[in-house]
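Suppose you are handed only these lines of text.
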Amino acid sequence: MTTMRTNLADDHNKLLEVVLAYRSSKCLMVALHYDLFTWIARGCATAETLARRLQLDRRAVGLLLDANAALGFLVKRGNRYANARLAKRLLVSSSPEYRGSNLKYQEATWDAWSALKGVVKSGRPRISLLEWIHKDAFTADYIKAMGDVARLPARDLAGRLGLGRVGRTLDVGCGPGVYSAAMVERNPRLEAVLLDLPRTLKVTRGLLKRHRHADRFRYRPANFLTDSFGEGEFDLALISNVTHCEDRKNNLKLVEKAHRALRPGGRLVIHDYVSDPGLTSPRFSAMLAVHLLVFTGRGNVYTLKEYAGWLREKGFRDISHERIAVDSLYPSTAIIGHK
Ligand SMILES: C[S@@+](CC[C@H](N)C(=O)[O-])C[C@H]1O[C@@H](n2cnc3c(N)ncnc32)[C@H](O)[C@@H]1O
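From them, the structure of the protein bound to S-adenosylmethionine can be written out as follows.
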């Protein structure tokens, strides 16, 4: 009887934990939206000063700060708040390890997730990824957000690729350009061609203009679905975190165009999250697949078998894969094929 009760309590707790997780998420995201951690670091230590400084409601700010203290991001003494260790490092905008852009971008996708009920009925999101990208503020936030999370896997990937003899690389859907930057840092003689939509590249140029090897980057505004990538120009083509935004048909197109753009012996590297064959693990991939449903409609998380099949179908050989950033909570995978 006791065991059954305990199991019931455990089961109920598990349900509550999942269903109420949104409250914690929203409290953190709204605190980040108003940069409360940064203002606290600048000395606004009470709900009164923050409410006055940011023209917010004093009582509501107090409740939000208490919730963030309960989550362990703030420490409260009397009526004063200070950033906890994690917040100082990751949530204060002047910290070199700031992760706020990425977390803020998660809030921008909240609206898309709110539509999940309807999307499960229709199979289609309300607005497409392209429409999201064409919102100016969203582009800048989205691109910066990708940059925050990309640095660690980019360094790991560049380190594993053996870039010593690589002269020219193509980065398809480069976003913030962090993967190209990591490759150039490994081999400053290589020339990195960054391909993305003109709107995105405007942000990319701004992010890379002060890079110590800024003269090694070339920018190619293009639509990767409709424009050519060139012929026999590159030693390595990278398609990172792009295939999950597209369906099988478009991904086959990208692989085919990359094949044409490579010199003989050149390598295609697809870097992305993968799903295990049953599609229910890792949990991150199963959740990402739903995220892509509400956010892109046609995007998905694919299996290693699917990737290897696409590469083989478009003429690549010696196909292998490497796990990237294995110490992170969400390791990714590089699938490599040779022309
Ligand atoms: C998820 S991001 C990946 C960025 C980067 N490769 C990375 O791994 O961090 C997808 C990128 O594809 C770009 N993109 C989306 N549709 C595109 C298209 N039709 N043509 C060119 N770029 C596109 C977006 O602007 C964005 O920068």
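What can we learn from it? The longest strand covers residues 262-272. The radius of gyration is 22 Å.
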